[in-house]
Write a structure and sequence with these properties.
ten-stranded mixed sheet; 10 strands; alpha/beta; 289 residues
């Protein structure tokens, strides 16, 4: 049995998907199960996957990340689920560092991520370094020479791809919530479900690196109002979860997150969340957030 089932949703993005799969096969330390969900796929994606014997689920239109990943996970057989974007290039031993971290846990309740290298980023959990913003400008050989200099300390707040969860944990929380389709704030919602189930390990692994092209396929979809949906569902804002519970981007000083600090800022931000929720209720859902 494979250790990881790598789930990749894709939407008419064959050049990047091909490179992603090639990087998994080239730079992983062990074999993994790869399952793709093909959204629309009018660019030859199905033919490519069939020719290479790669399992896939499919839909005639773009159903978004939530449904796509859930559908692909249903075919998986490995003990761990790994969600990967199709515009990511996995660097050498990316899987080794994640698997070794998993082996140090004494629980199945965790959500861990690799660390992204991005050409431009405001993400506190990513490393900014440009090795091309497209397939045509990708400097693969240069990246392979230099990637080890971008190792960073482990960090708190993991919930973005490439992330890994135990399949039992995934099934127990129901995977992605389809009401967040096509996917805005779906990762935060998943993290909140995990938190409520008792999970306290949300860890980014600084030595597990992937290059992220940031192709911004989300720019092609009509986005769901994810922040509003999160606030209505959980009665706090997603930014409150990120800052006070997940402590996203802070250096990890232990495997498990410590309890939130009940500081004046905590109560101020909590009050802001409650006021936003009340205002949305009073104004019939028309308040921008």
């Amino acid at each position: 049995m494979n250790y990881l089932s790598i789930i990749i949703p894709t939407w008419n993005n064959l050049p990047y998907l091909r490179l992603c799969i090639q990087s998994i096969k080239k730079n992983s330390t062990i074999l993994h199960e790869i399952i793709v969900h093909v959204n629309e796929g009018n660019d030859g994606t199905r033919a490519y996957l069939k020719a290479h014997g790669i399992l896939f689920t499919e839909s005639d239109c773009n159903v978004g990340v939530c449904t796509a990943v859930n559908n692909a996970v249903a075919l998986s057989t490995s003990p761990y689920i790994c969600y990967l974007n199709d515009d990511m290039y996995c660097l050498p031993k990316w899987d080794y560092f994640l698997i070794e971290k998993i082996k140090s846990f004494n629980t199945q309740l965790f959500m861990i991520s690799g660390t992204m290298i991005e050409p431009q980023t405001r993400n506190p959990c990513a490393v900014e370094a440009a090795f091309g913003s497209s397939i045509e400008t990708f400097q693969e050989n240069e990246l392979l020479k230099k990637y080890q200099q971008f190792y960073i300390p482990d960090w708190y707040g993991s919930c973005w791809p490439p992330f890994i969860m135990h399949r039992d944990t995934w099934n127990n929380v129901g995977g992605f919530s389809v009401e967040f389709s096509p996917g805005m704030n779906s990762e935060n919602d998943l993290a909140m479900k995990l938190w409520n189930s008792g999970c306290r390990i949300f860890l980014g692994v600084g030595q597990s690196l992937v290059y992220h092209f940031q192709c911004k396929s989300t720019g092609r979809v009509i986005k769901n109002p994810g922040s509003k949906q999160f606030l209505q569902k959980w009665k706090i804002s997603s930014s409150f979860l990120d800052h006070h519970y997940l402590r996203r981007g802070q250096p990890a000083r232990s495997l498990a997150l410590p309890p939130p600090k009940r500081t004046p800022r905590f109560f101020y931000d909590l009050l802001r969340s409650k006021l936003k929720l009340a205002a949305r209720t009073i104004l019939g859902g028309n308040l921008p957030i």
